[in-house]
Amino acid sequence: MRYQGKVAIITGGTKGIGAGCVRTFVEAGAKVVFCSQYAGEGDAMAAELSAKGPGEACFISCDVADVAQVEHLVDETVRIYGRIDCLINNAGWHPPHKPIDAFSVEEFRSLLDLNLVSVFVASKRALPHLRKTKGCIINIGSLVGSMAQLHATTYVATKGAVIALSKALAVDEAAHDVRVNSVSPGNIYTPLWQEAIDAASDPAATRAAGDAAQLLGRMGTPEEAGKLCLFLAAEATFTTGVDHLLTGGAELAYGRKTRKE
Description:
- It is built from nine helices and seven strands; from the N terminus they run βαβαβαβαβααβαααβ.
- Helices cover 49% and strands 14% of the residues.
- It is of the alpha/beta class.
- Strands 3-2-1-4-5-6-7 form a seven-stranded parallel beta sheet, sandwiched between helices.
- Helix 1 crosses helix 9, helix 3 (67-81) packs parallel to helix 4 and helix 7 (191-199) crosses helix 8.
């Protein structure tokens, strides 16, 4: 019950890291409003978690690339619960890997709307309420936002910007006692990872390579991401403007490098 009675908004909450955050916050006693474009899954998940408690979950269908829908998400949360204590901007997408020559300008702009502009819109709309509660914002970045990744120029650019935006917003909002941090996961075993494994010519080897990329010898779990976010929201009250790596040590020591395509 580390977050009992608090109200949290979590975007992209029906799958992967977002779902891990929703479950963790409800288990901590929070009232969680979460969104995605998967209405059927969202409604079922909200019913399941609310019945289990001790907190409760409310699902609102939302495409975070649509400004009006994001604003509606925040406004509905305030209408239902009267306050906001935490905003977790998690929704995003990693396009298939390809060199910059294969990305169109339109694809990049679309990804910016989804991965970056949505964070700006949700934060801006929620901040008047977060200032009243002295709440917090947690933005989900990515390890590759700081260390890059092969054939992922557009994704890396958006996640690097999320990390930078979080630091800049932390500077501005410190005067209002609103803390802003980011979490940058490495390999977290999500449905997207399983899709990549299933599509590989050698699924077992692909899973093994994913596990071996971390010093700890395994991928992280969505629940571990949720626990870190809960710690930042409930207990890390003297932490702001920090990018927290959730990577199992993947960024440490020398990795195998090659200039070959």
